[in-house]
Amino acid sequence: MVEGQPTFVDELPKMLELLRGAVVVGHNVRFDLGFLRKEFRRSGQEMAAALGEAHVLDTVRIARRRFGRGGNGLQALSRRLGYLPDIAHRALADVRSTVAVFERMMEPIGGWNLPFCDALLAQGGKMGLLPLNPRESLLPLELEEALEMRKPVMMEYLDARDERTQRIIEPRTIRRRKGELILIAHCQLRQAQRTFKLERIVQMTRIEPTQQPSLFPAPSMPETPVEIVVSSAQPVQPPAPQLLSADVQAQIDDLLLSGASQSMGEAESQFLDSHLGEIAQLVTSLSDDEFSSHEAVKLLFSHGSRPWEDALTYSTADVREEFASRPERGTYSSQEVAFTSLPEEGAWQDIALLEEVQDARNLNGAGVEACLRSLRSRRGFERARLAGYFDDAGIVRAAAEHCEHPVSFAFLAPIARDFAQPSTLRMPIEPAYSQPLATVEFASPKHLALVEIIRRAYKRRAMEIDRHDKQARLGKT
């Protein structure tokens, strides 16, 4: 079909004349822009530099805001909007379908007379030629939705002999191997899990509910008598598989590619919250060097209240200056009051800042024991350690006996090893975290990692309690 036709490099000058200053409109356009970017590079140019700050509109994003997720493939959307193309999955035909879909979705809100800013609003905001997040989904729409909704799709695939085959697959996940994106899926043709290179997928078609779910029904298995052995011995539980450093980034990528997370920060946070127990197990199973170099541990420290390496350079004056930069005034109970605004990242980052303020005040005015039993921040811990507050083990044990916050007790626990958790704690520390805490060296990476694990566990539990309390007050439980 393309034999003897001009190459991308041959046509690039004409394309640049059309594209410069234009708005790029496409259906699941991020996927197409990925290929376009590669061709620009093969031509010795960078797409963003060649086209400048071009605006992008994605009809998939517009459709999702209007119709919800699922069923927004180009052909299904065309039929929904009353456009019936003569042919599908061909370049010019799909361009015409995209134009028709875009026009019909814009009609109710102004059509071609709609201000461009309102068109951007219809897709949920500005979109550029390059993804803001380097791991933003670059998958075909049908595959992206199949991964997200756990639905089978019909795939046309070029096999090892470059022959086209059709098969129904149930996508499981995406992995990157040696720079290539690999789809892992259950293949109904082979009745087994298989891997497929994304670059060899010709097309995918969403299977409608009325379609036959399988090309080849699974053969019925003969019934085999099963021997049941009754034993009085206690079953031996297999040890939980250890979290491997090499698997961390792949699992985070899975969260992004499946749509479970909308940003890299959210995916990393979800990964940490779901693996706290496994990271705690690494304390006892790895050497100090192996532990410190583990990707999950490095990620844990990078997601703490503030970067740990800045602990010695951030002063009380810095905290005061940050708060002073965010004053606001508003009306509360018919009175105008002054307050400090919350950042957009959320209230928990403000709590972290307030904990640093509290520790700084205690270090400057409270006694040693009072300071230690309310210690909450990394910076406060480091400053107290440098000031010699942990030198007297008796004072540390006395402070541990009256701790109220789990994080405060976690900072002191390696010195106060012979003390059980005090009854004054707001929430008890789970054995999975408290037991290794009694074995680690004070102020070591393993100790500080356990502190961050306990901090995240407390935060998660506190948010659950707060959510339940709000639902109860609203009568939703």
At a glance:
The chain has helices at 8-19, 29-42, 47-51, 59-67, 74-80, 91-106, 116-122, 141-149, 248-257, 264-274, 276-285, 288-293, 295-302, 316-324, 347-365, 368-373, 378-386, 393-400, 406-412, 431-437, 445-473; strands at residues 24-26, 56-58, 153-158, 164-177, 180-187, 192-197, 201-206, 327-332, 335-340. With 477 residues, the chain is α+β, with helices and mostly antiparallel strands.
Distance between the termini: 62 Å
| Number of distinct helices | 21
Estimate percent helicity: 40-55%
Percentage beta strand: 5-15%
β-strand number: 9
Strand order of the largest sheet: 6-5-4-3-7
Q: What value does the average pLDDT take?
A: 76
Oligomer: single chain
Please provide the ordered H/E string of secondary-structure elements.
HEHHEHHHHHEEEEEHHHHHHEEHHHHHHH
Low-pLDDT sequence parts = 210-239, 305-316, 342-348
What's the gyration radius in Å?
29 Å
Categorize the overall geometry.
elongated
Overall structural domain count: 4
- Helix/strand-derived category reads alpha+beta
Report the biggest beta sheet as strand number plus sense, adding barrel if it closes: 5 strands, antiparallel
